[in-house]
Amino acid sequence: MTKYVINGGRELNGEVTISGAKNAAVAIIPAVLLVNGPCRIENIPQISDVTMMLNILQEMGAEIKTVNKHTMDIDCSAITQAEATFDMMRRLRASYYLIGAMLGRYGKATVSMPGGCNFGGVRPIDQHVKGFTAMGASVEVKNGIVCAETSGRLHGANILLDVVSVGATINLMLAAVLAKGKTVIENAAREPHIVDLANFLNSMGADVRGAGTNVIKVNGVSHLHGGFYSIIPDQIEAGTYIAAAAATGGDVTVKNVIPKHLDCITGKLQEMGVEVTEMDDAVRIVRRDSLKRTNIKTMPYPGFPTDMQPQISTVLCLAEGTSVVTEGVWDNRYKYVDELAKMGARIQVSGRTAIIEGVDALTGATIKACDLRAGAACVIAGLAARGTTMIEGISYIERGYEDIVEKLRSLGADIRCVDMPDEPQRQEQVS
Ligand code: EPU
Fold it and tell me: Which CATH class is domain 2-19+233-419?
């Protein structure tokens, strides 16, 4: 088994370049199913979630050519059947985007849902189903398989989401693009990757308006044409390096970012006494003094992102005083707390709230990543801790962080990937 070994307690200094956004890439790649013609997509992050999505399309019959490390030509024009292997789809949460894309293109979709669940209890798709049904599809969810079908073409509909859901907003946009007439999605999510998907679709000939607000209007078009598109930088990857620099101290410039997308994260770090300088497409973080306590509540964008909650909570473990973190999106996203406790962190969780008593230092230990962002929190803890930290379960981290070891080493971290004897296997989980 491969693990990360970190000799912590070193400041981070220097520059790090952020990759393309995972959660935009895993929506835009299946969106190519809707396009008649080749798409050149740039700034694709090299992470395992993206590889899995590309493998699914390839298995369906897409032509995929690698232009360079981050650019691919993808052509789905020749695909005629709306089927992929369940085994591959089960390993990736975002495979549910295939439902909207396949329904929109072929009027039919059979997709298996991810089997495991690493936080949030059951991760429901009722809002996706509600929207597809309103657009004229019959949808059946049985034994983890979603079968959706429409007799003709989907039609536009007015859909009011009961909860703000990133996945449902994206899936309904995908289904609506080639539907007959106008679809209105109300109470839509506003995350940067939703705007990115809308921009991608529009640059291929779609008519999607209002993305980034809570009402998205999609006027169906007859077909989409090929073109070029570059994926936005990853807000959460950037936030993770920012949090790492805050935890270790030092002076780090995070390059290739959209600073506006980071406001909710950098604002909190400023409250904690971290210096933040915003540039056109970079943010500089300097932390010399001790960290101050604060309170955080995660919320849909533009609120503080749930996908940064484990990382910022790790930083708060090292702040003076008591901080309160409230998870406003998922029911149970505190599994990493037991791992940090092994390093001396003092966190009490009750329901969706964590009370964090800052400590002077964390101490290295052997810990496990239990999901992607929990894994990022483990890395931050290891970088800041005294002594050696060994992190298991790194495949979760590599689902969403491109070249994390190399990027951290370039900032002066002592982190390496090592092969160690196997331990009993744990169940595959999803992000
Ligand atoms: N929800 C419902 N019904 C639905 C859909 C969602 O009740 O039909 C609830 C969920 O239970 C949750 C809330 O709505 O309480 C938000 O869920 P959402 O649908 O927004 O989450 P998601 O689309 O499954 C995406 C990201 C997650 C991120 C969430 C929230 C992708 C592939 N995943 O998940 O990212 O936490 O939005 O921002 O885009 C990660 O990157 O680490 C990650 C887990």
Answer: alpha beta
